[in-house]
Amino acid sequence: MSRRRGAALLEFAMALPFALILFVGIGDFSVYFWRQTEMEEIARGLHQAIFASADSYASAAGSQLETLAHSLETDVRRRTGTPDLTVQLSRHYACPQAEGAENELSAVSRPCAGERIYLRVRAEKPAAPMLTPLRRLGYPTAAFSRHVLRLR
Amino acid sequence: MKQKKTQRRRRERGSALLLTLLLTLVGAALLGLSVDAVSLLWVRSHAQTTANLAAASVELEQKRNPTASSVFLAGTARASAAWNGYRHGQDSVAVYLDQSGGRASILVEREADIFFLRLFRTQPVVVRARAAIAAEPAARAGV
């Protein structure tokens, strides 16, 4: 009887590490997916705030754009309760072709008929797995959202 | 009596391992399905943001150039979607300006990667997102 109980315990002990790795792995990836979804929600809030004063973002000088990014970051951190969130903004320009298409985004304005102004918005938040070896297997170090929205 | 006990013990030997293996397989299958489901939701969410931004771009274009043709507006939407990773005609992505039913909207489609659902489904899963061109860009961005 005691030998049988010992065998079951041994089998359980053999299987336990695999089960634990599986469950902690599930937890880690769930947390990552949840963070990514959260970042997408945060990004939509960011877009809303940017659209509300699109002209300021379109006409701000380089240093002013950094100031705007900083105040946007502070505002979103406070609103969403994510103190470790970072927001980066960069402005780009494009000239439309005959059928509305664009060939490239340029960092400098090249005046043309109907020039379009875009803002690249990147929001990022650190992410670390509970299962340390996952870092070596390419577990992302941050959850992020990256979008380009048109200002003008 | 003793012989019966020995036989039962022999039958039960390895049962915990077998049960654990079975449960692990069931767990892995559930995990696979959840990974696919979450991945589809993720793609859907990103496609929706892309459609929203493309629709906002078309609205800006309409304000600036009220006589713009629908071909030009579709090109505008595709340009916006392309900068967000959805290039029309590439990687099974399609971006349309849909003007049917009197309401213009942007439709973004993409075939999503599935891993475990392939066991049950041979056809690719197409994720679609639609954004109406009617509201102000500021109002829509938060949808």
Question: What would you say about this model in short?
Answer:
The complex is a heterodimer of chains A (152) and B (143). By secondary structure, chain A is an alpha+beta fold.
Report what the structure shows.
The complex is a heterodimer of chains A (152) and B (143). With 152 residues, chain A is an alpha+beta fold. Helix content of chain A is 50%, strand content 19%. Chain A contains 3 helices and 3 strands; from the N terminus they run αααβββ. Chain A has helices spanning 2-52, 54-59, 62-80; strands at residues 86-94, 116-126, 142-150. Chain A has a 3-stranded antiparallel sheet with strand order 1-2-3. The model of chain A has no long low-confidence stretch (mean pLDDT 88). By secondary structure, chain B is an alpha+beta fold. In chain B, 55% of the residues lie in helices and 15% in strands. Chain B is built from 4 helices and 3 strands, in the order H-H-H-E-E-E-H. Chain B has helices spanning 2-12, 15-64, 70-83, 137-140; strands spanning 94-98, 105-112, 125-132. In chain B, strands 1-2-3 form a 3-stranded antiparallel sheet. In chain B, helix 2 (15-64) crosses helix 3. The chains are: A alpha+beta (152), B alpha+beta (143). Chains A and B meet through helix 1 and strand 3 of A and helix 2 and helix 3 of B.
User: In DSSP terms, counting alpha (H) and pi (I) runs of 4 or more, how many helices of chain B?
Assistant: 4
Radius of gyration from the alpha-carbon trace of chain A, in angstroms = 24 Å
- Percent range for helical residues of chain B? 55-70%
**C-alpha Rg of chain B, in Å?**
26 Å
Number of strands of chain B: 3
Category from helices, strands and their pairing of chain A: alpha+beta
Can you tell me the residue ranges of chain A where pLDDT is under 50 for at least 5 consecutive residues? none
Distance between the termini of chain A: 80 Å
Biggest sheet strand order of chain A reads: 1-2-3
Helix/strand-derived class of chain B?
alpha+beta
Helix content of chain A: 40-55%
Shape of chain A: elongated
In this structure, how is the largest beta sheet of chain A organized?
3 strands, antiparallel
Number of strands of chain A: 3
Number of helices of chain A: 3
